[in-house]
């Protein structure tokens, strides 16, 4: 939502949003195991895409190194979990998110001194640095990656209050994280902070002339985005129980950018829709039932579909929805 | 001039890789007065404005605001201390409403970025300050319009309204009449006249009729250096100024 459009049609849209949340919440009761797992992947991707939307859509900062923060949090789960026994959620999640935010603070402090294509390149370079740390040093145990033996839980007086090893608990925990991330960013968008970010995106020179120290705003956005990507990385590591350096590689940064472009930059719903569409398209392209032996060339299929989508829908999937709404609104009013 | 200057440049220079864009310029902007800065294209007028606003750092010399040395202050800090500026090329938020353009500018004085739970649009203080600036510039009937759809003259007025929303004491106006028709120019000159009692104004302008009508003091810049600095009547009679600028066909 742009700063200018305001709350014109707030309630019907939020009704749709809550209906979608209810549908996702009910899904494990009728969806098959494979599809529930796919829904989890989509929710985690959606959190990751939302975190990048804060930078690209809300602040106008195109980062091409966002996988680093996702990957660092995921590796933190693997490396900080004690060898025997389950780690406690109450410190593991803040630790993983905190490390992602810390790296974002370092990368942001240095990269935000550049602009445009240079910013894209510098963020990419920092992400590749993180990639090689996990790929080529004993810390990350190389390209084989690390297994995470036990899943985090919260115990109170000897009882497991929240055990992420239970699939249904983990599912709802992930959904809660997605709703919280979406809600948080929706609050940011309408707050003074969010309006200042929108101003920076529109015209940073004017913001500085008005008296905003724009560097501090951009750094804050960058660190928050890194922390939110860290939540997604945490959930990813807990879900799969396995991390390898590929989750920090540059093509992951590209994938999350593609998700928000596909869904429609400048809209929180777009980030979620984009994560959903991308994950689904990838599954379809990989399906041997649909493509036979060609399924092993899924990247080609996916690439072509995305190019066509982006060319046909410059404002993404949510752009189509709002264009349709505009077209049918006069009919409904009549 | 009797009063202490609000804003003063003391022998400021700016070099760009060997080129001297501004060469040891001193000038003062007094309260409740219009100080016009004139000179041919490339004389260094906009560079000087950038040095005063803090958008560019001075290579040499000092900039003083209210008796404080602000030479090392970055632009946002100088802006919060009371220096407002407009640009030669209109610099607004074209996709925001007129109100939001001004409200966002007003927000610079109470930024409160941590108040994430509160809507920016509910902030009474910044909203009222924005509306006051819009009223003052005569844009009250266009407050809900998207800024990009305004006529050129209204966009220039909006830029001044955004500037006023930050409650500056010094206004640096870089060619506010550029590209305006006669009626729009008159409106803008009327606005500058209304702002004069409460602001110190530095006016960069090519329209000589306007300058001689409205300025209390004129500084003539050529090749980055001050050629003359005096009251309008003396400037008009100055032979050097005639040669450097006024003699040229406008």
Strand content of chain A: under 5%
- The assigned structural class of chain B equals alpha/beta
Sheet/helix structural class of chain A: mainly alpha
Low-confidence stretches of chain A: 1-9
Helix content of chain B: 25-40%
What characterizes the major β-sheet of chain B? 6 strands, mixed
Global outline of chain B: globular
Total beta strands of chain A: 4
> Can you name the CATH architecture of chain A?
Orthogonal Bundle
Q: What is the third-level CATH name, the topology of chain A?
A: ABC transporter involved in vitamin B12 uptake, BtuC
Encode the helix/strand succession of chain A as letters: HHHHHEEEHHHEHHHHH
Number of domain modules of chain B = 2
The helix content of chain A is over 70%
Oligomeric category: heterodimer
What is Rg of chain A?
Answer: 20 Å
Overall description:
- The complex is a heterodimer of chains A (334) and B (250).
- By secondary structure, chain A is mostly helical.
- Chain A has one domain: Orthogonal Bundle (ABC transporter involved in vitamin B12 uptake, BtuC), CATH 1.10.3470.
- Chain A contains 13 helices and four strands.
- Chain A has a two-stranded antiparallel sheet.
- Chain A is globular and about 55 Å long.
- Chain A starts with 9 loop residues before the first helix and ends with a helix.
- Chain B is of the alpha/beta class and 250 residues long.
- Chain B folds into two domains: 148 residues, 3-Layer(aba) Sandwich (Rossmann fold), CATH 3.40.50; 74 residues, no CATH class.
- Chain B is 35% helix and 24% strand.
- The radius of gyration of chain B is 18 Å and the shape is globular.
